[in-house]
Every structure is written in C-alpha cells, then in structure tokens.
What we know:
- The chain has a three-stranded antiparallel sheet.
- It is elongated and about 65 Å long.
- By secondary structure, the protein is α+β, with helices and mostly antiparallel strands.
- The chain folds into two domains: 6-75, no CATH class; 78-149, no CATH class.
- It contains four helices and three strands, in the order βββαααα.
Amino acid sequence: MRLGTALDDRTCADGQHVVLADPAGEHRLWFVQPAMHLPLAVVIPLDKDFAFRVAGAQRFRRWLEHRASGQPPRSMLLTKRHRDRLVSMLRALDMHRAEHSYREIAATLFGEKAASERGWKTLPLRGQTIRLVQDANAIVNGGYLKLLRGN
C-alpha cells in the first residue's frame, strides 16, 4: 500500500516515524518493524489516552479510504496563543541551558527596555520569565504528554 509523499520520514532505533500531509490535520505514524509487504495494522494501548488514539486511527483509516478524515479532536488543537507560549518557553529554556541570566532571557523575549536593570528583581516580567523556564522544563520532562491529551 502506498501512503503518498511524507512530510517527514525518519528511521530511528525504535522504528520508522512518518508524518503524512492532510489538509484537516497531519497523520503521525510509527512503524515499529517496518515491513511494506505486510498489511497495515494499528496497535492501540489500553491506557488513559485510548480514546484519543482510537480517534486518530479512525481519522487515518478515512484518509486511507480517500474520504475526508475530519478534524483532530478539538482538545488536541493548539490555539495561536498557546503555540506562541510554547515557542517562548522553548526559547527561554534554550537560553537558560546556555547559562544566560533570567534578565538576558527576558530582554531577548520581551525587549531590552522591558527588562531594564533598574527594578529587575521586582518586575512582574522577572516572574513571568522564570515561569517560562520552569514550564518548559516540565514540558521537556514528560509534561508534553499533557499536550497530546489536550490538557
């Protein structure tokens, strides 16, 4: 079975990871033991994400049948504001890991004027910058699963 052109296709130690384009929302596949001569099968763990996984499998099957796959579950879609915050979190974490100060991070993210030296310790922006780094660390250390669940 031909799946079409992949937006991304990587083979790693744990198998092959493929991203397929769909105007309604990408399909992300993981082939544990790629074997193109065998029919496709879906393995869905009976865990707390079962309903999301089933919805994804149903969307993918409709796509395979050349039907409209439908939108991903609404709780799985990120708002522009949420995407922007995630980008800021990752930028802040990268700078923090490169040993930049919180003031330097804030100056990069919000502008030099907003993160002026004078009164930095009491600026609300300081707390916001620290929270961005803390939240990014939480996401990197397993919190990304909340995103996958739509939390």
